[in-house]
Amino acid sequence: MTKIAVVILNWNGRYFLEKFLGKVLDSISSSGIRGAKLVVADNASTDDSVEWIKVNYPAVELILLDKNYGFADGYNKSLDHLDAEYYILLNSDIEVTENWLPPLVNYMDANPAVAACAPKLRAFNNPEFFEYAGAAGGFIDKYGYIFCRGRILDSIEEDKGQYDNVMHVFWATGAALMIRSELFHRAGGLDGSFFAHMEEIDLCWRLQLMGYEVSILPESVVYHVGGGALPNNSPQKLYLNYRNNLMMLAKNLSKNRWLIIFIRLLMDGASATVYLASGRLSYFKAVIMAHWAFFGRIPLCRKKRKAFKHLIVKKADAGVYNGSIVYKYFSSGKKIIFSQLKL
Predict the structure, then answer these.
(1) For the chain, what is the domain count?
(2) Is residue 306 part of a domain?
(3) What is the tens place of the pLDDT at every residue in 228-253?
């Protein structure tokens, strides 16, 4: 069995592969970790990225999928081909640092109760600041809104070392996620019905329900470009985030599930009204379509919830803010930062 499989899921990403693949390969080679390999899984790209890899990095293992399965099922189907103790899901738009890998491996080896962990994410284009998609660890409020140490809604902090302690969190970013392969498969992997967005949060939630922990290791640092597959201002991305967040709540919440979802629907409706009033009609439509799509998927959520129920041993309570981060943020005049929250 391979010790570590670092797996980059590619879809028409030659630009990022040219920019970052060599650095990933060099960091693995220089890490001193025996049994670590790099794999590129391709989601049926229509550019020439696969041919480019074959020519420039012939030693890199390739997994070629027959169509674009999205982030979730793209990884599920790719990881089924691999036999490794640990998987590292690594976005193609991640720039790794020289020693990013050993701290993750050493920590996981020493902490068997930890199912998954991630490095600290900084912004590639603004490297003194945290990056939106993960920053220094992921959290969630009682209504399912997600935020990070170092990023609350759209406010991102400069990284001054204020969050450099190892911490158990609610979720770790899928942009650079290390996970025990056995637990990945036992938990059911990423939810393919999500296609993309929120799937790693849903998985981390399930891992906690199974009795395991999720951690952030700021000693390991990577830089994330962000928006590599879908631009950050994409209505499609907004649609997926709204829909998948509601599905995640329906699948995993225990207490007052439908009351919380009802309140969340009202809060989403308020944000949709703001989009409409500001003339962003495509965003307004994305929220409404996400709600209708969620209603249609409630039976699927119930089926998945029932199938997972026998694995639940505890409540997922690490990294939960028992209030509304949206209310806290706007009532403070958008000046609240993570360190001021009482978790």
Answers:
(1) 2
(2) yes
(3) 555 557 899 999 999 999 999 999 99
Nearest CA-CA partner of 204 in 226, 177, 181 = 177
- pLDDT tens column, 80-110: 999 999 999 999 999 999 999 999 999 999 9
| Among 252, 310, 76, residue whose Cα is nearest residue 179 | 76
Q: Which of 163, 193, 224 is the last residue of a domain?
A: 224
pTM, two decimals, is 0.95
Residue 298 resides in a domain: yes
Phi, psi of 324 (to 5 degrees): -105, 115
The predicted structure's pLDDT at residue 227: 64
Q: Is the dihedral of CA 182, 183, 184, 185 positive or negative?
A: positive
Q: How far apart are CA 307 and CA 150, in angstroms?
A: 35
Q: Give whole-number Cα distances, 205 to 76, 182, 187, 253, 264, in Å.
A: 17, 16, 10, 9, 18
Do residues 6 and 36 make contact, with C-beta atoms less than 8 angstroms apart? yes
Residue ranges in the chain modelled with pLDDT below 70: 227-232
Residues 262 and 179 in one domain: no
Q: Which residues pair with 218 in a beta bridge?
A: none
How far is 40 from 299, CA to CA, in rounded Å?
35
Pair (9, 150) in one structural domain: yes
Domain ranges, residue 242: 235-314
